[in-house]
Amino acid sequence: MAEDKLRNWIGGAWVEPRTGAYLERRNPADTRELIARVPASGPEDVHAALAAATAAYPAWRLTPAPRRAEILFRAAQLLIERKEDYAAAMTREMGKVLEETRGDVQEAIDMLYFMAGEGRRLYGQTTPSELANKVCMTARVPLGVAGLVTPWNFPMAIPSWKLAPCLLCGNTAVLKPAEDTPLSALHFVQALTDAGLPPGVVNVVLGRGAEAGAALVRDERVRIVSFTGSTNVGREVGQIAAAGLKHCNLEMGGKNAIIVLDDADLDLALDGCLWGAFGTTGQRCTAASRIILQRGIAAKFETMLAERARALRIGNGLEPGVQVGPVVNATQLERIAGYVAIGRQEGARLVLGGERLQSGGLAQGWFFAPTIFAGVTPQMRIAQEEIFGPVVSLLECDGLEDAIRIANGVAYGLSSSLYTAQVNAAFRALRDLDSGIVYINAPTIGAEVHLPFGGVRSTGNGHRESGLATLDVYSEWKTMYVDFSGRLQRAQIDTGE
Ligand code: UN1
């Protein structure tokens, strides 16, 4: 069997897909390079993985949380040792530059350490009873098997956001990573396995969402569904989960805005906008795809941004000095080009880019030029819809209030940012920007793992990943009363009156 032929990880063994079918994953920076043949798994593979996760659950549930946490801790240490290799593999499979793939592995390390610490806390409450000689307490308890569906843009970090709290709480899991990024998911699970995770506690089924992912979230053995991806798919996942009365955490699209007021430090804002818009080739849910400029600085800032964006080095993310890698696949490339056409049609002014890059060694990859549209108005589709590529829209505003109205005037509410030197403006924005995450004098990207991550309106369904908030997705509260009075005591009735 060829080295590059991947298998599913089920019950602690490598298993060929029962479908016998495979997809090809190619390097987005040079599609001549075959990265892997990826199982195109179907429902039967999902069933096998769920059987393994179900069988592993009773023992894992009863493994003390501090012991579970120690495995996460050891996995973090292994990822530190393997960071360079795993980061390079990630760049090859999905394209973002090495510095960023190192950051992706680091985010998984951070999450594992954070949740490992939680193993000796996982606090519940103890509280007085209204009755004498009676105690009341709560504890977080696991639910059973989780079905986790993860995207390609943070192919190790996002699986870690889900798996670390899932396992810490005592659940077992079946992970269905994006078909474009199987290696990073397998590497993460390999670290957990090498750290001592028992067989069957985590299983990986590779394949497409419509086949493997759908079978997973539908199955009645799955008590927790956590999905990161598009709002359209997320809405369907949410409906399936609701019908099955499952815990369900959805992290979906964004149309994040950076506001730059006249008084802002423009150089600082420029660095932030460049990183926010073109970092990860714009392929973050937190990417800044709108920049809202106060009129006084709009023209100047547009020139500054275009100049710096023009100078960005595009190329293979493994090469030193490259700042922007390719987009992930041909479908995304087409989608981005489609939005550029829409922007032109809508009458936005194309300041930079707008086309696929095919010269100077880029011909074999899925490269798209950093693209800036100016003169964009809030209702244009390029100002409303998530593009997920290196395309940013410049809009103008009269001042803070107008800017906040524009920023909030989209379906999504993940992340937003304000550059200003005025403390009052900063606090108003923190209060009034209607998004799950708000930054002051920093771009829309850069969330840290010990704080809640997620968004409002069409971005999410009211849950959070990361931080302690994510524990609510992966556990239920059990409320426990112990009456040691030796007689019947009736709550609400034996009030002592
Ligand atoms: C995502 O965009 O899908 O805050 C996740 C950030 C990263 C995570 C992004 N830490 O941009």
Topology at a glance:
Blueprint: E1 8-10, E2 13-15, E3 22-27, E4 30-39, H1 43-62, H2 65-94, H3 98-118, E5 126-128, E6 134-141, E7 145-150, H4 157-168, E8 172-177, H5 182-194, E9 202-204, H6 209-218, E10 222-228, H7 231-243, E11 247-251, E12 256-260, H8 266-278, E13 288-294, H9 295-310, H10 330-345, E14 349-352, E15 371-374, H11 381-384, E16 391-397, H12 400-408, E17 412-413, E18 415-419, H13 423-432, E19 437-440, E20 456-457, H14 471-474, E21 476-483
Parallel strand pairs: 7-8, 7-10, 8-9, 10-11, 12-13, 12-18, 13-16, 15-16, 18-19
Antiparallel strand pairs: 1-2, 3-4, 5-6, 6-21, 14-15, 17-20
Helix pairs in contact: 1-6, 2-3, 2-5, 3-4, 8-9
Keywords:
single chain; 497 residues; alpha/beta; Aldehyde Dehydrogenase, Chain A, domain 1; Aldehyde Dehydrogenase, Chain A, domain 2; 2 domains; 7-stranded mixed sheet; 5-stranded parallel sheet; globular; binds 2-aminohexanedioic acid
Total of DSSP H or I helical runs spanning 4+ residues: 14
How many beta-strand elements?
A: 21
Oligomer: single chain
First-to-last CA distance = 79 Å
The CATH architecture name of the largest domain reads 3-Layer(aba) Sandwich
